[in-house]
């Protein structure tokens, strides 16, 4: 009987696999951190990662949702694409919330998903899911790699698409046979995208129109959105506002694009914005939107939004201009390029002193307010204390809901790229993993995750990552033992029928943190807050603080759903 | 209002899904869509007939189409001098005497009978949508057993009465 010789092992160190080609492509793209989770269909990629000398770190989350929110936090503070890696099927579908979140908030991500081998795609194979089909509506672009030769080109193209123009998530689906394919060739990474040429420079004629409108405006106001951050336009925005003495309203995602404590700043506009900001928009005769998308939470009822204003809109995405609000002066451009050109035309003559006086009066007479209880901790006051004890210098991440609005109102942002929140999608469970990504992206900065007790319970498994890497993230749980915003709406609009919004059982968050080997603290008296927070911010490692706050506290002021921007309730006590 | 939108796209995987998915997501009503190769290899031409509420919605549609990375050029050609054609296959009940009658009905439309069976005949008609519609309504009394239309495909005539301005704001 003839004994067959064992096939010789292919030495993968001599030949390259598709996964090795991918590692090189990632190095070339400048990736330094990969947020991921392994699985069957990405085994070749994780093997290449293990063998690789590549100068990037892989951060192992405890759930793919943790990976992608971390990548979002990283992208938000660094401006670079966050890189995510997950396996096929459930690995990929666990990313969906984060991909959608990034799409809504224009965050650059490059997301790699494993896929079953090419030969069995479409046969409902084990852990197969139609990643391209599922992610098409929630990505800026997506790919399935058909051949190893495409990898360098697709990766380079994906990083370019994710970070340029209006940023957004790009998904690359890699079948297992492609990442396992062995090759000795090198492939070109050159790409050509004739259908994708974002307009960066504004049309000078439009800038002239805008400058002209500005010279005649009596009640001008700037609305600054996240587009200002993506374009690194904060400096020029500040100059522009100062030269023309233009009051500035920021959107939720635009917080920090203009220093919140400046005289010209009116704070955040919208559903829970300040009276001064919303009334400025309502009464203005020239509204200059820079990089915001007129989201419904900002505008309220469209009929009553800036009814007397000529609207100018600077946006790199032409499809946002005129989408919700009729726009007289459209400027398709990168915010910084447009501001630079506007500054060339700037003249400091202006005739809107009465307007400025009125707005300053509104600011003075209708400040944000809250009720302070005798013993219990008021959540708004807590945020103010966090601001104070962190000297207002932290990178702040949040989930969605009451604590998010209080953070937006009371943690005044002075600089861009330090406010990490889930705006468009409003994702619970975003804040804590986003803080991990933010800390990895900005290792020297203080990162504070302001989260609700509801949201934290959606993603707290990532405490393992914090422990593993000893990331000094400070988690402040604004714990009202309820889904606060849901409860508030039930109180206001559903006659206090608190349907499923109050938690009758929460974990002991101190023990929970300790079980992960992380310091846990708890505070439930106002008198102890200062001391606890001082301890938190002087401690070098990670801390989880369970802050028990008043359950029935509401976010004010508020524009009720369907109401106009001038119909705020709860403006004063 | 009914508009005819023509889009030139790169023939990359999933482009049709991307475009129709976007239109579905943003609640644009597609009446018909036809897709096929263009004169350039790797480039396809799509023609949509859509029903949109107003000009603002129309502008949104062309902008959202333009935003797609695989879309090279978008034009609303409704009000231009265009050639627009669709093809319909119509299977009508008919035997004996009726056949001659039907033949008489379709002749002015320059339609032709392309299949005959004992109890039915299949008619092929090409033309502008209103012409095709007119023939279909004339044939309806005879009993339409099956109907299939390709949707409109269209482009600009070689010569335009006045200058054509593209909606497209992107350089291509």
UniProtKB/TrEMBL annotation, chain A:
One of its GO terms (molecular function) is acetolactate synthase activity. Its cofactor is Mg(2+); thiamine diphosphate. The keyword Isomerase does not apply. Residues 209-342 form the Thiamine pyrophosphate enzyme central domain. Its EC number is 2.2.1.6. Belongs to the TPP enzyme family. NCBIfam families: acolac_lg (TIGR00118). It catalyses: 2 pyruvate + H(+) = (2S)-2-acetolactate + CO2. Residues 399-547 form the Thiamine pyrophosphate enzyme TPP-binding domain. Keywords: Amino-acid biosynthesis, Branched-chain amino acid biosynthesis, Magnesium, Metal-binding, Thiamine pyrophosphate, Transferase. This is Acetolactate synthase. It is an enzyme of class 2 (transferase). Pathway: Amino-acid biosynthesis; L-valine biosynthesis; L-valine from pyruvate: step 1/4; Amino-acid biosynthesis; L-isoleucine biosynthesis; L-isoleucine from 2-oxobutanoate: step 1/4. Binds 1 Mg(2+) ion per subunit. Binds 1 thiamine pyrophosphate per subunit. It holds the Pfam family TPP_enzyme_M. PROSITE patterns: TPP_ENZYMES. Residues 16-131 form the Thiamine pyrophosphate enzyme N-terminal TPP-binding domain.
Automatic annotation (TrEMBL), chain B:
It comes from the Bacteria. It is an enzyme of class 2 (transferase). Residues 4-79 form the ACT domain. It catalyses: 2 pyruvate + H(+) = (2S)-2-acetolactate + CO2. GO terms for cellular component: cytosol. Keywords: Amino-acid biosynthesis, Branched-chain amino acid biosynthesis, Transferase. One of its GO terms (molecular function) is acetolactate synthase regulator activity. InterPro entries: Acetalactate_synth_ssu, Acetolactate_synth/TF_NikR_C, Acetolactate_synth_ssu_C, ACT-like_dom_sf, ACT_dom, AHAS_ACT, AHAS_small-like_ACT. NCBIfam families: acolac_sm (TIGR00119), PRK11895.1 (NF008864). Catalyzes the conversion of 2 pyruvate molecules into acetolactate in the first common step of the biosynthetic pathway of the branched-amino acids such as leucine, isoleucine, and valine. Dimer of large and small chains. Belongs to the acetolactate synthase small subunit family. This is Acetolactate synthase small subunit. It comes from Virgibacillus salinus. The lineage of its organism: Bacteria, Bacillati, Bacillota, Bacilli, Bacillales.
């Amino acid at each position: 009987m003839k004994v067959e010789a064992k096939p010789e092992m292919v030495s993968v160190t001599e030949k390259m696999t598709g996964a090795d080609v991918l590692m090189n492509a990632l190095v070339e793209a400048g990736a330094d951190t990969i947020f991921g989770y392994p699985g069957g269909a990405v085994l070749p990629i994780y093997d290449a990662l293990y063998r690789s000398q590549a100068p990037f770190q892989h951060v192992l989350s405890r759930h793919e949702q943790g990976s992608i929110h971390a990548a979002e936090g990283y992208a938000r503070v660094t401006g670079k694409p966050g890189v995510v890696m997950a396996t096929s099927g459930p690995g990929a579908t666990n990313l969906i919330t984060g991909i959608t979140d990034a799409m809504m908030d224009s965050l650059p991500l490059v997301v790699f998903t494993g896929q079953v081998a090419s030969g069995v795609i479409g046969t409902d194979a084990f852990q197969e899911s139609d990643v391209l089909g599922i992610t098409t509506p929630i990505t800026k672009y997506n790919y399935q790699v058909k051949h190893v030769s495409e990898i360098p080109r697709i990766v380079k193209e994906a990083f370019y698409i994710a970070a340029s123009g209006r940023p957004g998530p790009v998904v690359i689906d890699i079948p297992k046979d492609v990442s396992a394919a062995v090759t000795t060739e090198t492939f070109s990474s050159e790409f050509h995208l004739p259908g994708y040429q974002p307009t960066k420079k504004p049309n000078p004629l439009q800038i002239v129109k805008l400058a002209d409108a500005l010279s005649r405006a009596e009640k001008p106001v700037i609305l600054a959105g996240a587009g200002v951050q993506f374009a690194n336009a904060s400096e020029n925005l500040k100059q522009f506002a100062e030269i023309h003495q233009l009051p500035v309203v920021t959107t939720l995602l635009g917080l920090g694009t203009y220093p919140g404590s400046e005289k010209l700043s009116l704070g955040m506009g919208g559903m829970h914005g300040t009276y001064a900001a919303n009334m400025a928009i309502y009464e203005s005769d020239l509204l200059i939107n820079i990089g915001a998308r007129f989201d419904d939470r900002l505008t309220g009822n469209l009929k009553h939004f800036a009814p007397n204003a000529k609207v100018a809109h600077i946006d790199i995405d032409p499809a946002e201009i005129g989408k919700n609000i009729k726009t007289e002066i459209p400027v398709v451009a990168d915010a910084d390029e447009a501001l630079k050109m506007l500054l060339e035309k700037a003249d400091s003559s202006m005739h809107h002193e009465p307007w400025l006086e009125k707005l300053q009066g509104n600011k003075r007479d209708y400040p944000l307010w809250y009720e302070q209880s005798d013993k219990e901790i008021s959540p708004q006051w807590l945020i103010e204390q966090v601001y104070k004890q962190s000297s207002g210098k932290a990178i702040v991440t949040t989930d969605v809901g009451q604590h998010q609005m209080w953070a937006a109102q009371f943690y005044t942002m002075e600089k861009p790229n330090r406010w990490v929140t889930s705006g468009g999608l409003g994702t619970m469970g975003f804040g804590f993993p986003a803080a991990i990504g933010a800390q990895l992206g900005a290792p020297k900065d203080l990162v504070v995750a302001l989260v609700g007790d509801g949201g934290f319970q959606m993603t707290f498994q990532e405490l393992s990552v914090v422990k593993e890497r000893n990331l000094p993230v400070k988690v402040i749980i604004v714990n009202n033992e309820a889904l606060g915003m849901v409860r508030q709406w039930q109180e206001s609009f559903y006659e206090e029928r608190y349907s499923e919004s109050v938690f009758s059982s929460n974990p002991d968050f101190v023990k929970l943190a300790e079980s992960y080997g992380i310091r846990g603290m708890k505070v439930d008296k106002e008198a102890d807050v200062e001391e606890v927070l001082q301890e938190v911010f002087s401690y070098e490692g990670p801390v989880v603080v369970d802050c028990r706050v008043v359950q029935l506290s509401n976010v004010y002021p508020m524009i009720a759903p369907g109401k106009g921007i001038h119909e705020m309730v709860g403006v004063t006590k | 209002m009914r508009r005819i939108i023509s889009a030139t796209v790169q023939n990359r995987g999933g482009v049709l899904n991307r475009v129709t998915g976007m239109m579905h997501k943003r609640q644009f009503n597609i009446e018909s869509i036809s897709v096929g190769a263009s004169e350039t290899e790797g480039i396809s031409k799509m023609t949509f007939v859509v029903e949109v509420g107003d000009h603002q919605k129309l502008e949104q549609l062309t902008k959202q189409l333009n935003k797609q990375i695989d879309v090279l050029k978008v034009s609303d050609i409704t009000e231009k001098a265009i050639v627009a054609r669709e093809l319909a296959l119509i299977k009508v009940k008919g035997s004996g005497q009726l056949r001659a009658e039907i033949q008489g009905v379709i002749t002015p439309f320059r339609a032709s009978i392309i299949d005959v069976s004992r109890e039915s005949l299949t008619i092929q008609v090409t033309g502008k949508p209103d012409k095709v519609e007119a023939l279909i309504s004339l044939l309806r009394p005879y009993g339409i057993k099956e109907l299939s239309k390709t949707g409109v495909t269209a482009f600009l005539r070689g010569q335009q009465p006045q200058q054509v301005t593209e909606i497209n704001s992107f350089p291509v």
